[in-house]
Amino acid sequence: MDRNLQFLAPLNGINEKRLRYFYTVMMFGSMRKAADILNIEQSAMSRQIQLFESELKINLFKRKGRHIIPTEAAYLVLEYFKENKNRENELFDSLT
Questions:
Q1: What domain range is 85 assigned to?
Q2: What is the CATH number of the domain that holds 53?
Q3: FRET partner for 22 with CA separation of 20 to 30 A, picked from 30, 57, 77, 90?
Q4: Number of domains comprising the chain
Q5: Are strands 67-70 and 61-64 parallel, antiparallel or unpaired?
């Protein structure tokens, strides 16, 4: 069974690609590293994170020069993402 079923979007109405980009930034601590991992330009990564913040109407990162520092909201979104991924995995496990 396809593990990427569209009906299992992690956040209602939120762009799943942007959520995945956000997750990668959080895991690697850098937009440059996340962009390299996902094989996209750093400017594209930065833009997608800005759009994600606009969608959520919150700042996910504090920017200090070339560094980013996750906000408390970023950790809440990260936890939500992880919980939903766990639920998705449990669903697929129960279907197989």
A1: 15-95
A2: 1.10.10.10
A3: 90
A4: 1
A5: antiparallel
